[in-house]
């Protein structure tokens, strides 16, 4: 099984913690953020690791990993970063943001899906926003689901009726990965020179969720792998301090 980890960005909201290391290499409980991910993956035999590097790339080193460079990381966003590894985007595979920690149970939920494309969605998302002022709920990539299928996903989705938060981990079968690549190619052809791609963003600055919504508009089915906790995002110093206090024991469950 393959995992593709998007790890090109700096993570400026972690302030001095990323002055000398990429965001995913920031320490939590004596280990890097990325190390928790790798442990969860390896528990389920996910050993074919592909890492997209950008900021301080030479300081992000994982034994046995295949690296993909995003030299334009200051000027693009998650979607473009992912497709710097386009040759590796074949399923079955997992794709994850690099600033999240999650337990092996979360990986198991993703792998157990029957969907060709499944977004891991936390139904208890609201608990991680209690007292979280530097990263408010308006920045959550919430997911609206109808009939078992994702209809909308992203920061523009309001809390009313949302199933939960897309945590930044998704599963793609061989067919799902092909649909992802084909949708990206279609979007690139149509929107690369356009002012707007999705949700007020250009194609160059698009989020992965913007491509998901484009795929849904094209009639592609995207499902969910629901979870109830077992993960945390580390986007700000406040997040880092909170996870330092609460995460270490949970990470081995």
UniProtKB/TrEMBL annotation:
Superkingdom, taxonomy of origin: Bacteria
Pfam families: NTP_transf_3 (PF12804)
Gene3D superfamilies: Spore Coat Polysaccharide Biosynthesis Protein SpsA, Chain A (3.90.550.10)
Any GO molecular function: nucleotidyltransferase activity
Domain MobA-like NTP transferase: 3-123
InterPro entries tied to this protein: GlmU-like, MobA-like_NTP_Trfase, Nucleotide-diphossugar_trans
Swiss-Prot/TrEMBL keywords: Nucleotidyltransferase, Transferase
PANTHER family assigned: N-ACETYLMURAMATE ALPHA-1-PHOSPHATE URIDYLYLTRANSFERASE, NUCLEOTIDYL TRANSFERASE
Protein name as catalogued: Phosphocholine cytidylyltransferase family protein
Lineage summary: Bacteria, Deltaproteobacteria, Bradymonadales, Lujinxingiaceae, Lujinxingia
């Amino acid at each position: 099984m393959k995992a593709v980890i998007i790890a090109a960005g700096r993570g400026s909201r972690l302030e001095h913690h990323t002055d000398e290391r990429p965001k995913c290499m920031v320490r939590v409980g004596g280990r890097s953020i990325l190390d928790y991910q790798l442990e969860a993956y390896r528990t389920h035999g996910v050993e074919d690791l592909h890492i997209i590097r950008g900021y301080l790339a030479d300081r992000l080193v994982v034994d046995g990993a295949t690296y993909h460079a995003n030299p334009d990381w200051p000027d693009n966003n998650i979607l473009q970063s992912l497709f710097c590894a386009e040759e590796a985007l074949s399923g079955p595979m997992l794709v994850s943001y690099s600033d999240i920690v999650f337990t092996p149970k979360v990986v198991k939920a993703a792998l157990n899906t029957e969907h060709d494309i499944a977004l891991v969605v936390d139904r208890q998302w609201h608990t991680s926003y209690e007292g979280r002022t530097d990263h408010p709920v308006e920045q959550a990539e919430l997911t609206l689901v109808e009939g078992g299928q994702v209809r909308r996903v992203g920061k523009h989705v309001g809390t009313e009726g949302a199933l939960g938060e897309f945590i930044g981990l998704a599963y793609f079968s061989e067919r799902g990965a092909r649909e992802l690549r084909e949708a990206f190619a279609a979007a690139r052809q149509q929107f690369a020179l356009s002012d707007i791609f999705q949700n007020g963003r250009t194609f160059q600055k698009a989020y992965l969720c913007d491509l998901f919504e484009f795929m849904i508009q094209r009639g592609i089915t995207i499902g969910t792998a629901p979870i109830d906790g077992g993960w945390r995002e580390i986007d700000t110093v406040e997040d880092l301090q909170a996870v330092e206090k609460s995460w270490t024991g949970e990470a081995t469950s």
